[in-house]
Amino acid sequence: QPAACCPPQPAAPSPSVPMSALLALAVLTFTSAAAKPNAGLRTWEHFRKLPYPGDEAFLYDTFPKDFIWAVGTAAYQVEGAFEKDGKGLSIWDTFTRGGNRMATGDVGSDSYHNIQADVRAIQQLGVSHYRFSLSWARIFPNGTRGSYNEIGTNYYRNLIRRLKEIRVQPVVTLYHWDLPEHLQRTLGGWANPEIVGIFRDYADFCFQTFGDDVKFWITIDNPFVVARHGYGTGVVAPGIKNDPDLPFTVGHNLLKAHAAVWHLYDRHYRPRQSGQLSIALASHWINPSRTRLESLRECQCSLNHVLGWFARPLFIDGEYPACMRERLGPRLPSFSPEEREQVRQTADFFALSYGAVLSFHLINDSLKFGQHEDLDLRKLLYWVSAEYNNPPIFVVQSGWYVLGKTKTEDPKHMYYLKRFIAEALKSIVIDGVKVIGYTAWSLIDGFEWHREYGIRRGLYYIDFNTPDMKREPKTSATFYRYVIQKNGFPELPEHRPARGTFPCGFVWGVSANSIQVETTPTLFADPSVYLWNISNNGQLQKVEGFSAPPPRRSTHCADYDTIRQQVDQIQKIGVNHFHFSLNWSALVPTGDVAHPNTTLLRYYHCFTRRLLQANITPVVTLWYHTRQRSSLPAPLDAANGWLNSDTAEAFANYARLCYRELGEHVKMWITLNEPNDEMVSYQEGHQMLQAHARAWRAYDREFRPSQGGQVSLALHMDWVEPAFSFSREDVEPAKRVLDFRVGWFAEPIFGKGDYPLGMRRWLRQLNSLDLPVFKEEERRLVQGTYDFFAISHFSTELVTHAKENSYTYTAKLEVQLMIDTTWIMSPRPVVPWGLRKALNWVREHYCHVPVYVMANGAQEDPAHFKDNLRVYYLYNYINEALKAYTLDGVNLKGYFAYALNDQRDPEFGLYGQVHEEVIVKASLSNYRNIIQHNGFPIQGAAPQECPSRAEACWGCQILVRKPVVGFLTLVGSLVLVTLGLIIYYAAKAHKECY
After folding, report:
1. Mind listing the domains of the chain with CATH numbers?
2. What are 930-961's pLDDT values in tens digits?
3. Following DSSP, what letter does each residue of 62-87 receive, concatenated?
4. pTM of the model
5. Pairing of strands 61-62, 402-403
């Protein structure tokens, strides 16, 4: 197996190590070591060196045994009851009533009155921890202990008690953006250093009241948003935006407040309560716009301005990052030596938030420093680990969002959730990062801060217009529950590479849309006379004023240098078949086979003959559908193209011409290649089916007895998978799409002689009369016109009946097409198992029909001659084809890689080209290796023994009762006759081959 498919994996913590021991060890490690400045800078280089694309492939594995699975909410988003039972106003209660804001969190998700419903949802998910925040103003209405509210406190006591009953541990956030309004109005909120002591006193009460049942505390959620967007941009409460330096003062106070609370807990509560305490820091990820070190430093500085602003003082040395100090100068407050000691190393774990939060969407480019913001949790985890002494990392908020109109089907949210969890798993298993837990955000739909109710992030759907606020699980909730039950993504047998070989006689091929045609014989086209090697330099020197008489002979196949070059390239791949398309419009320009292009026909004849001489069987397509331009002869195209019934008969006559002229060498024909394109109308498809059938029956009656070949058509068949594999509701849409894409052409030919029943029913339901009806003679003409089933397969899509504005919605079929965000992109998704499923679809629908994968390949930058993506693609797709053959019983007869070269099929070639030089790509060598082994032999097994094919004849046609051409080398007046040697070697080759 190539290295790209199975990347080396650094040592990682064993999943069998208890998480508690891992946490304790990690705490000891990161508190006793000192991080080098900018240690995270190596992150970009580290990931650049990982094997591509193998490192990006989905990792099937499980999390450590006692990994924390959590879900979370924030008080203002979900609680509601903003004035009930003595609760005081918060800055968000005030903020949502000012400016141009349209909605409030007055009711939110009404969790205050729905504890049991929330707890039931938490229990259904199967999480081990629930993160929620306390509403400071519900406990202390004016922010201080003197305003204590017993009823509000009891709400949280009740919630914690209910969580204990279902064995779910609380993760409690003391402050999640909802400062008591009284403190903002009287003190200026977090801008006033007096709030440090007030916050400490509030925390002291919470530790006293709830601490015996709480083992994880978060002091402040996302201080970056509080400081920058609450007191800087004014996007969130309290909405202050007049003083550009105020955010740094606020951030300074937030750090000191957190540190004061940590020391309070550490000294007075930890010995008895044995909990852990941290602050939730959120960040974006960013990639360099260039590979220069300056760009990497700008990326590093961008992260330091968002995450390092708070993480560096807390986890390292009580100082702000150097790049912040350099750029902001005196605008950034300073810590005294005593304050540095008070702040440094005041976190027991790294609480990381990541996803659709304000710190990911940086609102403007000011903190990107010319670099590119990106979505990559794994790299951020690695950076945090490197930058801050490998602390235990608890992802305390992660997820995505969907637009507010989405109800219980949220595929976008679900697949982003899958992506983030998968990245956390790779971070543990491959990168050795100490990730101890993951929190999906959020439990239920709620008030989404400055976006109000315009987006939804909940795993449970809430109709905010109903009085009971019923919690309905979304598909993302179902997915998350499955992941938790399996503790990740355990490897199943179908995920493992297969070992074994294809049968003897298996067809290995390469496909090209077309071949290079140069009908001018290159060997005799130049009438000039040359002197050779005059200066012993091996050069030709043209003799001016002289020309050779034109050769008095007809053109021979050996004259076409382009044929020799192309066949040589094909032969070096090691294939035994080559598939290419003829050019109908060039072969029969008038549409009338009585006037063919005999020169081009001769060229094709020579090409197929030369292939056979090289032991390569030609597979020839008569017509290849192209979207960009019509590939019909101009007169037929002008006469309504395929909509004209005469075109089908013209195609049959064209096929007869090709059978007659090329059938001596061609034993495998494709009439129509990928006619089932979505741009083709049903009326055009109806005529194409009849054109194929006429061409097939013409061969069957007139040519098969003497030529003994096979004829079929090739259908484009990318796979379509239900987006929600655990939901039966998406099975029907997937079947519908396959009916319309593949069954449309397959069922009339390979099935019952009519279009799929599901296709007719659906169009009838839409009152559409677009689909033609087969007359009885048409049905008899079309049905059974095949010798094999050929497919072109490149990729896979997901389909769902749900509708989200983020993806392509096909109104006619009422389906949404999308992708899994964990898939490798080429730019189309690389989904090897899709080929296996496509092959099984053919078997299930048409029994043991012989099947050929007529084209399969990946798009990659032509400049990548070490095309690792294509190496990975071919290896894994062929391996899935082997599974279909050996495990599923698919009657698979052959596989063709697409394509031969970039010159004819840009970005798909096994050969590249720079100027005039042909480059052998890495994928070609890997494909040849698979062919030589006829698959993936079991290690140590006896070699497969197959009858050997006859060796290719290289000297044929040089001397076969034809004129001999001699070359004279002229040096001065001395004539050296080399004709004897030419005749000797030509005669020897003639004897060996004939």
Report:
1. 39-487 (3.20.20.80), 717-787+796-825 (no CATH)
2. 999 999 999 999 999 998 766 555 444 443 44
3. E--TT-EEEEE--HHHH---TTGGGP
4. 0.89
5. unpaired
